[in-house]
Amino acid sequence: MDSPEFLSTSLHTMTCLEVPVHLFGAYCILFKTPISMKSVKFSMLNLHFWSVFLDLAISLLTSPYVFFPALVGKSLGLLEYFNVSIPIQLYLIVTLFPTVGVSITAILENRFYLLFARDTFWKYLRIPFLGFLYLASWCCFIPSLLNIPDQKEALEEILEKMPIILKYANVTEIFVLSTDYREFFFTLIIMIALVTVTSVTFAFLLHWNMKKRSKLVNVSIHTLHLQKIFFTAIFIQTSMPILILIFPLNYLAFSMFTEYFNQAINNICFIITAFHGLLSTIIMIIVHKPYREVFYIVFCEKVLRILKLKEGSVTYSMSSLSRPT
């Protein structure tokens, strides 16, 4: 489990599973979103796009083989075969994580704005606010990438502390992002905190305003019930994949602060992270009734129909055999 072959095989196998599921999810959003969900269609498509992009970036494009706690590793993915530089591959990976988080904030903000803030000052601030979050996601790691050390000196320093790395890769294959993890790690913590706080804030505002609205006499009970169902579905869709990422992030923090090295767990962390988008798409299809019905019609009904036809043909064959000649 600590070998590069195990990691690449696992990630590329996941790609084969992810692509058809993601395509079906995109089909549902684009063509099967009902009029009642039209207002959130773009936000859902935006979240789906970035989640899929993160999935494929890890499992197919880069397949990072990283030796945490050192910020050292190599690429096993498709971009390596096209000679794309390691810093560009790094930039792609590290920016997609916070971008997915901002997309989750955007979908919650969209619901809050449409339901409760259309006639408030927030309508003037929402676009600059979301623009700032996306810009921060795309720019926050640029200082780390601009300060990439001299590879020869950095490798000597890293190998003095962790000579075990040579067991897993040749010196000519590995790339050192930094000899000091603190700048990179604290930038990651700041972005995670920013995205988490904003997402939780909008989730709280939605819940609080719905609770407040439920006490009003002139509000339709049916409309309020539908809004609560949709909010619950959105909450499940956005929170469950985040829970998947808790283990990799906690292990990353533990590994860096204790200098604990275990390449098998490093590999598993990236496999779990790559599973994030697949889980997000599956949950989206399950929790939203229109998409769930499309899945049932496209797959379940056809399977049942085929089984019935086979059962009918078997029955007919048995009856024909039992007839006297």
Automatic annotation (TrEMBL):
Pfam families in the record: 7TM_GPCR_Srh
Superkingdom as given in the UniProt entry: Eukaryota
InterPro entries for this protein: 7TM_GPCR_serpentine_rcpt_Srh, Nematode_rcpt-like_serp_H
TM regions (residue ranges): 12-35, 47-68, 88-108, 129-146, 184-208, 229-252, 264-287
Record's keyword terms, sorted: Membrane, Transmembrane, Transmembrane helix
Designated name of the protein: Serpentine Receptor, class H
Species of origin: Caenorhabditis tropicalis
